[in-house]
Design brief:
The structure holds two protein chains of two kinds.
Chain A: H1 10-18, H2 23-58, H3 63-66, H4 72-81, E1 87-92, E2 97-101, H5 121-141, H6 162-168, E3 173-178, E4 185-195, E5 198-208, H7 210-259, H8 278-326, H9 332-366, E6 371-374, H10 375-389, E7 395-399, E8 405-408, H11 410-427, E9 434-441, E10 444-451, H12 485-495, E11 499-504, E12 511-518
Chain B: E1 4-8, H1 12-24, E2 28-32, H2 35-44, E3 49-52, H3 62-73, E4 79-83, H4 88-96, E5 101-104, H5 109-127, E6 135-138, E7 141-144, E8 149-152, E9 155-157, H6 161-172, E10 177-179, H7 180-186, H8 193-210, E11 217-220, E12 224-227
Parallel strand pairs in B: 1-2, 1-3, 3-4, 4-5
Antiparallel strand pairs in B: 6-7, 7-8, 8-9, 10-12, 11-12
Classes of the chains: A alpha+beta, B alpha/beta.
Chain lengths: ~525, ~230
């Protein structure tokens, strides 16, 4: 299995998906723009309506325009129609201002936020956030209405402009223009005043778009705030959900990995989740797959035991028959064959015993008791024993001085050394010594058994310590080789938390098998 | 009156072979193939010794059950398990049920009959009054070679026949190292090294149960075991 290069957890993926919702503020902006257009139209219509109403009131009253200058009567009428935010002009045909009421600047245009001064901490925090972070942001995106603009028309006695010209030519004209300093936009509607068939003057109603702007900004701010809050809540919820999902998946993965040990043996069978969703499903199918695997493994492990059990019965048949036969008076010739049959039987028995040794060791490892003992003493004692057991084989023991306190099962260590030495004796060139070394390392101790002889074949590298693997060429001498010796070494080394490895000696003339055992054992 | 031995073994050839060799030695032998047959016969009349296989045809642990039932009928009857199974688990289970010995089918017939004879001797002498002592004394250890029983500080240690012979082999020459082969020879068993190890462990445990300070059996790694003479 190769790991993908870019790793993106479920949480990150879901948050990435969430960025799609960042389009919502943009949609909101478009919506607000639409709203603004609508409001502007409404404003224009209102202004036009007002202009028309004023003009209607002044229709067909020729007397009003005769004076050629400001007329108190007009002003009186205008006062009756005036609105707070609009400015109304009345001009005559020569664009002279006859009357003017109202102002463009709104005096009450204060930001409306003093209403809710913190009743709760959260509200205050929100208000602070709005003031400090959101308002400046809105200010960047949207133009803020300002009452501080230059109003060049107000001071002139003569009004000029497209609207006025349009109205004086008899058409209701609506115009919008920016102030000279660009800080505001003024919408104006001009309506002609008819006296008979003649345009005698015009009414101009003006208003800034500030009210509309304020309305728009307010709408946008509300929308943006709501979207932001929704996004925030949504991403928190999604993150939590994704965390929950990935925790479950990670737990499942950890369980699945822990269920099988480094050698592919099933250690524990998963319980299987009871959740009804796909992850629960996955967990259950993991669980059943592991259970089947465990079944198969135990079937295989029991195989050697069953096989030897099955073989023991026919062997007992042969042995008891031979024993019975031995009690009969037999001719001398027959005794020779009896002896041969017995010998063959002994060999068979030996093979069966060896076959079950590994399986039995695995069983006894499970209940082996650990004790503290001096590793150096055990190794030295064993080597003494081997000198007696293999009299024609010379042995060299290299011990680092002092005791080596170790926690483990001494008889297992001895069994492991038995296998290592038996292996070395078999491969050693006649007349060359076998070296057994025990050396302290950092927080560990290394046990080496080296012999001169043929090097390891490259192809076997790494598999030597597996069950039923042997590098021996077919030889007629010696006992049967099942390739279990080094497997037993590995089992015992791993029981003590260590590792076994085999390598050719640095001088190229022989093999060294090393077992590294940690002195401080990790808790199992 | 000849002694009666019951053999419960599902394999007819082995059953016949064992029966033949024991008959030749003058025992009266009755052989049974199933647990039911054997139990029916035992209820009518108890044998003097029983040799039982654990797996009886389809009855995987039939021998264990039979041993339990037989022990209920007689607490002293010598029982030997003779099985193809050689795991520590089976051996411990068999001995816990009250069997006097546990042999694997690797055992040769002469070894089997030696055991049978020894068990008879022991059961005879347990009944008889203490006479003509033949004991081996090693400090707190006292081995009664006739009864095949062991005592430690005067307290009886319940050893199986195999265990008794192993203790005897070790204690006869204190300080000498007995390797596994010679222990096997003296205990008349054919097993592998790790079984010897677990036998020795069991022996140690039995002595430790009586005396917390017991450490007369020393493992000499790479060689075998040694009986330590006590320093007193």
């Amino acid at each position: 299995m190769s790991r993908p290069r870019i790793t993106l957890g479920i949480r990150a993926q879901l948050l990435l998906v969430l960025t799609v919702f960042l389009a919502i503020p943009w949609l909101g902006y478009e919506y607000v723009r639409e709203l603004e257009r609508f409001l502007r139209d409404a404003q224009e219509r209102t202004l036009a309506g007002t202009a028309q109403a004023v003009a209607t009131a002044l229709h067909d009253r020729p007397g009003l325009f005769d004076a050629g200058s400001a007329s108190p009567e007009i002003e009186q009428i205008l006062h009756g129609l005036s609105r707070t935010t609009a400015r109304i002009w009345v001009i005559d045909r020569d664009q002279n201002v006859l009357a003017r009421v109202g102002t463009l600047r709104r005096s009450d245009a204060q930001p409306v936020e003093a209403g809710r001064t913190g009743d709760s901490r959260l509200a205050r925090a929100w208000a602070w956030l709005e003031r400090e972070a959101l308002q400046p942001l809105y200010g960047r995106v949207l133009q803020q209405p300002s009452e501080d603009f230059s109003d060049e028309r107000s001071s002139r006695p003569v009004a000029a402009g497209r609207d006025v010209e349009g109205a004086l030519s008899g058409i209701l004209t609506v115009d919008r223009r920016a102030t000279a300093d660009g800080k505001a936009v003024i919408v104006s509607a001009a309506h002609p005043i008819w006296v008979g068939d003649e345009v005698k003057g015009a009414v101009v109603v003006e208003e800034t778009t500030n009210a509309v702007l304020a309305e728009r900004n307010h709408a946008f701010a509300r929308l943006f705030t709501i979207v932001l809050a929704a996004l925030l809540i949504g991403s928190v919820a999604l993150t939590l959900y994704a965390s929950w999902l990935s925790t479950r998946i990670r737990r499942l993965r950890d369980d699945a990995e822990a269920a099988i040990d480094a050698h592919g043996r099933v250690r524990t069978v998963l319980a299987g989740s009871r959740a009804g969703d796909e992850i629960g499903d996955l967990s259950r199918s993991f669980s059943s797959a592991l259970a089947r695997l465990a079944q198969y493994a135990s079937y295989q492990e029991a195989m050697a035991g069953r096989l030897s059990h099955e073989l023991r019965t026919p062997i007992a048949v042969v042995r008891s028959s031979l024993d019975n036969l031995a009690l009969q008076p037999l001719p001398e010739e027959a005794r020779v064959y009896m002896a041969r049959a017995q010998e063959g039987l002994d060999r068979l028995t030996h093979i069966i015993t060896r076959m079950t040794e590994a399986a039995r060791l695995e069983a006894s490892l499970a209940e082996a008791e650990r004790e503290r003992f001096d590793l150096a003493r055990v190794v030295a004692g064993c080597v003494d024993g081997y000198r007696a057991a293999y009299p024609e084989q010379s042995m060299e023991l290299k011990l680092s001085p002092g005791t080596i306190p170790f926690e483990g099962a001494p008889e297992l260590i001895a069994q492991m050394l038995d296998k290592l030495v038996a292996n070395a004796v078999e491969f050693a060139k006649p007349g060359t010594p076998i070296e057994v070394g025990l050396e302290r390392e950092i927080a560990a101790v290394r046990l080496d058994v080296a012999n001169e002889g043929p090097p390891l074949p490259m192809a076997m590298d790494g598999r030597l310590f597996d069950s039923m693997v042997s590098v021996r060429e077919e030889r007629t001498t010696g006992g049967p080789h099942l390739g279990l010796g080094l497997y037993i070494v590995r089992l015992i080394a791993e029981f003590h938390g260590g590792r076994a490895r085999a390598a050719n000696r640095s001088d190229g003339d022989g093999v060294r098998v090393s077992v590294v055992l940690p002195l401080v054992r990790a808790l199992r | 009156m000849s002694r009666r031995i019951a053999i419960v073994e599902d394999e007819p050839v082995i059953r016949a072979n064992y029966a033949d060799v024991l008959r030749k030695q003058g025992y009266e032998v009755s052989a049974y193939g199933t647990r039911k047959d054997a139990l029916d016969a035992f209820r009518t009349r108890l044998p003097d010794l029983a040799v039982i296989d654990i797996g009886l045809a389809d009855d995987v642990d039939g021998g264990f059950a039979l041993c339990r039932e037989l022990r209920a009928l007689s607490p002293t009857l010598p029982i030997i398990f003779l099985s193809a199974r050689d795991s520590d688990f089976d051996i411990v289970a068999g001995l816990r049920l009250g069997a006097d010995d546990y042999l694997t089918k690797d055992v040769s017939l002469p070894h089997l009959s030696a055991r049978i004879a020894a068990l008879f001797r022991r059961s005879d002498l347990l009944a008889a009054p203490r006479a003509s002592e033949e004991t081996l004394e090693r400090g707190a250890l006292s081995l009664d070679l006739k009864r095949l029983s062991a005592r430690w500080n005067g307290k009886r240690v319940e050893l199986t026949l195999t265990e008794f012979w192993m203790v005897h082999a070790l204690a006869r020459f204190p300080g000498h190292v007995k390797d596994r082969d010679s222990l096997m020879r003296e205990a008349k068993i054919v097993v592998d090294d790790s079984t010897i190890t677990s036998h020795v462990k069991r022996i140690r445990k039995k002595f430790l149960a009586i005396d917390q300070a017991f450490d007369c059996i020393t493992t000499v790694y790479g060689m075998g075991y040694r009986w330590n003479a006590e320093e007193r």
